[in-house]
Amino acid sequence: MTTDHSPIDAPFGSWATDRILSDMQPNRSVHRVGHGYVSVFEERYVFKVFHDEDPSEPLLIRPKVGHELRMMLIAGSDSVRLIGRLFDNTKQKLIGFIMPYEQALAPGVNIGGEPGERAKFSKEQKREIIDKLCRLIERLQARQIIHGDVKPSNLLLCSDGQVRLCDWALASVNGDNFIAYAVSDHYASCRRCCLPQEPLALEEDLYATGVSIWEIWMEKVPFEDVEEDIVDELVMGGIRPDLQAVDDPEIAALIKSYLDAGPVCSNKPGQTRTVCTQVDVTFNNCRATPAHVETRVVKCYHCQDPDATQQCAEPFRLPNVLVDSSSPVCPKCNPIYVGWRC
User: Fold this and answer.
1) In the CATH hierarchy, which fold is given to the domain comprising 123-260?
2) Which parts of the chain span the membrane according to its record (predicted)?
3) For the whole model, what pTM was predicted?
4) DSSP 103-129
């Protein structure tokens, strides 16, 4: 199969690699959601099928096969290779496309498909993958391309050793005012969770890259122990993956640099709409053994409301923080400085 082709909307047969759905049998499903599915054919190819819009749900925005194909072609070699188009069995309707079967850096969320296992890499392999990821994002940023859903399950370690992105359904070119119809909360910036109806900024991919590096290094999804329905609450409060858990200072600094390069959000750090947060703070100049600990609680907007009838039963605990205090000594070591803050 080759990649030489005519325009995206050309009739069936215009691409030498055009296929119909019945050609892709038998296959096995690896990902299935309401708007379509992804299946593997001959253990060499993956094809993605888009379902028709449901007239009973006119407000439900679904991904468009033409849009994703366009963005894959714009991204070129930074996208997973586009092998061919996929039509329905009448050869009249474009319903999807075909790609090579490559290794994802992490399993995706599967509904009715294979659960998948996370690929295992040594620390040196992780560093090499992370470096390739950073170069990939640099190239896309230079070309003003926004992927919109950077995360390890959309990052492929291809057979030629390169790292490429798949799933371009939320992608856009900076300035075209495309509104992403969905968001992956675990990898989203505070701004994106607060303003989901705004066009994506280039910086969104930088923030998501920082979170992705964290996941690649830690081998787990950020906030995996948090209930799904409050992840966006924590993100809107400016809460980030735990950098203290990263055992390599250079990797931790790299992650922080990408997170810091994300879009600006005006929310107060740690403050969410409905989840109070708590953090234990120790000071670098504390003389006590064990060191003094100051517990700080940031009440959510709901609990700050004097008319609220219910309060959070227990705040969400954030990773402990070591603070460079602005006072000459630890505020708890010397009561004179108890009112001082870092």
Assistant:
1) Transferase(Phosphotransferase); domain 1 (1.10.510)
2) none
3) 0.83
4) EESS----SSS----PPP--HHHHHHH
